[in-house]
Amino acid sequence: MQSGTLGSWRFIKHAGLCSVIAPGGIQIAASGGAPGSGVAGADAFGVEDATSPDGATVQHMRFGFRSGGFFTAEPDAHLAIGVAGRWRKDNPSTPSFDGCLMGRGIIIGNVSGAPQGCPQAPVVQIESFRRDGNALFATTCSPRLQDDVDYEITLWADVHGAIGYRVCNASKEPLAECRVNDHGANIPAGLGGWWITHVFSDSHPDADWTLAFVDLSIWWE
Question: Which residues is 11 bridged to in the sheet?
């Protein structure tokens, strides 16, 4: 599905296993690595590979967001969220079949140890997912987010390389809004895949948490 309202989704981690509670029709991927290399269970959903519709130039994503203990339980983890891209998971039984992640988007959480990562956490920050390595934009940090607080997050990217996001509170009052140009990055044009995934989120296997994505919508203009 390239556009439409996709309902509400949740990642739920309980007793060391992460699951997705989701409406139908969307791909769900699970990590296949050894303990300590990912998360034990489902850690991504979205559309792996699609093209932009004829005449469309901007892909949008919007969702309500709520962390149910994720930020506290996994203080070094983050979500990677992207549009106008392509992705696939590693296949551990086929070493030559490598995963990939290309597109433009944001992180939600902690990237303070990465080059140009926001020094505070958890936050929203723009990230470009390139063939030759990801790139964070240092000037795009939101204020700190909190567990058990409702937010509305909008992300968009255009075919020329612009990326933007907006974070609002539950009353739809803006808390942060950023836009950057990622022109010339090594990302193919015309991609329409999208993803929501969490990474570095298995450091504390005994801690339970949830991540809620409410009224998820994807559309093109």
Answer: 20, 211
